Amino acid sequence: MVVATDPDANGQVGIGCQLTKNTEKNAVFLTGSLMRHVTRMSLTTSIGLMAVFAVDFIDMAFIAMLGNDALAAAVGYAATLLFFTNAINVGLSIAAGSLVAREIGAGRPDQARHYAASVAVIGVCVGLVAPVLVLMNVETLLAWLGAQGEVLKLASRYTTIILPTMWVMALAMTGMAVLRANGDARRSMLATLYGGALNAVLDPILIFAVGMGLDGAAVASVLARICMMIAALWPATRVHDGFARPRLVQVRQDFGAVRAIALPAVLTNVATPVGNAIVVREVAQFGTDAVAGMAVIGRLMPVAFSVIFALSGAIGPIIGQNFGAEKFDRVKGAYLAGLKFTAVYVVLMAAILFVLRAPIADLFSAEGETQALIYLFCGPLALASFFNGVIFVSNASFNNLGFPIYSTWVNWGRHTLGTWPFAVLGAYLGGAPGVLLGQALGGVIFAAGSWFLVNRVLGTLTRSQQVDPFTVQNRLHSLFGRRGW
After folding, report:
1. Closest to 119 (Cα-Cα) out of 162, 176, 45
2. Nearest 5°: CA angle at 300, between 284 and 440?
3. How far is the CA of 285 from the CAs of 78, 317, 375, in angstroms?
4. 13 pairs with which residues across the strands?
5. Which pLDDT does position 482 carry in this prediction?
6. pTM of the prediction?
7. What is the pLDDT of residues 165-218, one digit of tens each?
8. What are phi and psi of 194, to 5 degrees?
9. Which residue in 66, 163, 363, 399 is a FRET match for 254, CA 20 to 30 A apart?
10. pLDDT tens-digit profile of 334-388?
11. Which residues contact 31 (CB under 8 A, 6 or more apart)?
């Protein structure tokens, strides 16, 4: 189709225009069943997440076969440090997905490509500079985390091999975000699967056959990252023409919009380990059996509820495209579809866990406090995962509707004020199970708060207008009715 209106003063086509053929092809979420879109995107994204969790588990199992506890501990410390650096890439990928989906929905495919290229350039630059700064102080940082002696040296070497490829992971995650923004969840999933499969194949070869030990595990992870990058960028560029030619002027022009989403997203992402650390600390006072129960739950949670974890990345492009196209009723419908999908999935999975609670406990030879915590998780705590899903869906909505700072507030609030006082009170009233129940109660409160905020935001989407969701001060003024709220 021919675009009906002329470009505005900024060289952009107005939102209230007909879509180009290219946009019609990629803006797949503007029509059709919202529940079907949510289900398809969530399931395909979760398969990729499951592959990552499975490879991490296999990786640790192979390292454990070497018979040196220091090696496993070193990987644990290194993974903690790498998590914080990878949070930057997560933030950038969220920015890429939000910006690209919005522009595709608005009928501005050229601007979508510019945003994708700008995020990629920023990701490469940060991915080259940040590792240098970290590696200059790597032993000090690892020592702050608790690594000592041989474990410190091993963790430092493992980190030194993997961290320089931060820029590779930045491109991989940006490419996958662009694919999802274009509605191509299948190829985004395949990029993760290819990387995970390569890692799983190379691990035993490099660790045992070649005799590289821990270094072999690190090299396998590096090669897997490169595989993911290629598998994501190839279809993003060849199939969807998702990236423009990078230009410094364009990157500088787009930097503000990217930063407005990426920075809050990074802060949001690093809140989770803070909350987990609080819970582990409170549980630890009840002995090793309680800590062992927490460890089992930590392994069960991502396996059972990876679909819920995937919701943030899955529903974002659906909301973003419809927001860009000013289909506000579908924006609201997508949010409700996400909540309905969460409720149905959690009830079904909780029922499965309840039926299998005894075999699961036996699988880990659980007794006493360990068994009690596993049974608790495979019962009411599994149902409480619905409220985590509400927070995930709400955060994706905030990121794509121009209020990314809200997701930061909600996540930090949930993992601090919504965790520590409730966990302490729960420990006092009910021991280790009380800690987990207290944490769940805090999640209920902050899920309700996020639902309230999302509905306030959705209430402003009532008329067709030229929307720039990244002028946050103006949006806050319109939402709360006073300047500088």
Report:
1. 176
2. 60
3. 26, 43, 20
4. 7
5. 44
6. 0.82
7. 999 999 999 999 999 999 998 999 999 999 989 998 999 999 999 999 999 999
8. -60, -45
9. 163
10. 999 999 999 999 999 999 999 999 988 887 777 888 889 999 999 889 999 999 9
11. none
Break the chain into its structural domains and give their ranges: 55-269, 271-463
**Token pair listed for 8:** 């505005």
Residue type, 189: M
Q: Which two tokens stand for residue 323?
A: 């927001």
Residue with tokens 């491109």: 171
Cα separation of 417 and 413, whole Å?
A: 5
Neighbours of 20 (CB within 10 A): 18
Q: Please, are residues 59 and 201 in contact by the beta-carbon 8 Å criterion?
A: no
C-alpha to C-alpha distance for 3 and 228, rounded to whole angstroms: 36
Gap between the Cα atoms of 167 and 171, Å rounded: 6
Sign of the CA dihedral 391, 392, 393, 398? positive
As a three-state string, the secondary structure of the chain is CCCCCCECCCCCECCCCCCCHHHHHHCCCCCCCHHHHHHHHHHHHHHHHHHHHHHHHHHHHHHHCCCCHHHHHHHHHHHHHHHHHHHHHHHHHHHHHHHHHHHHHCCCHHHHHHHHHHHHHHHHHHHHHHHHHHHHCHHHHHHHHCCCHHHHHHHHHHHHHHHHHHHHHHHHHHHHHHHHHCCCHHHHHHHHHHHHHHHHHHHHHHHHHCCCCHHHHHHHHHHHHHHHHHHHHHHHHHCCCCCCCCCHHHHHHHHHHHHHHHHHHHHHHCHHHHHHHHHHHHHHCCCHHHHHHHHHHHHHHHHHCHHHHCHHHHHHHHHHHHHHCCCHHHHHHHHHHHHHHHHHHHHHHHHHHHHCHHHHHHHCCCCHHHHHHHHHHHHHHHHCHHHHHHHHHHHHHHHHHCCHHHHHHHHHHHHCCCCHHHHHHHHHHHHHHHHHHHHHHHHHHHHHHHHHHHHHHHCCCCCCCCCCCCCHHHHHHHHHCCCCC
How far is residue 182 from each of residues 96, 117, 238, 316, measured CA to CA in Å? 11, 15, 13, 11
Predicted local distance difference test score (pLDDT) of residue 59: 77
Q: For residues 189 and 197, what is the distance between their CA atoms, to the nearest angstrom?
A: 12
- Residue identified by tokens 């002028």 is 471
List pLDDT tens digits, range 72-123.
Answer: 788 878 887 888 888 899 999 999 999 999 999 999 999 999 999 999 999 9
pLDDT score at 25: 60
Report d(CA 60, CA 221) in Å as an integer. Answer: 12
